[in-house]
Specification:
Strand content: 5-15%
Helix content: 40-55%
Distance between the termini: 95 Å
Radius of gyration: 26 Å
Shape: rod-shaped
Order of helices and strands: HHEEE
Strand order of the largest sheet: 1-2-3
Number of helices: 2
Structural class: alpha+beta
Largest sheet: 3 strands, antiparallel
Length: about 130
Amino acid sequence: MQKQSGFTLIELVVVIVILGILAAVALPRFIDLSTQAGAAGAQGVAGALSSATSINYAAKKAGNASGVTVSSCLTALNTLTPTSMPTGYTLGAGTACTALDGGTATCPVTNTASGQVASATIICVP
């Protein structure tokens, strides 16, 4: 009698069913990643704008000639290099400065691809 090797049909069906269950459980997690990526991108740009205005405030206070005046969200763009938002992001008007020297304003940063919005807190400089 000859010895046969290989998988039975039942074993193959069981493996396929297990793979299908794993795929059904993991698929929603991967679909949701695009939303999270859009939000993370908007938060990253908002963080860069906040950091740029903080560095600008410190430069102005130290008497550095490279510091620029920041009185609103739109003038905060002058602290970025280049002086515009990255492609795919827009900056809203936001709130007014609470005080001109060291006051803050909140600016909405929108990821145009996903519609996700993050807030950037800028430091106003006369």
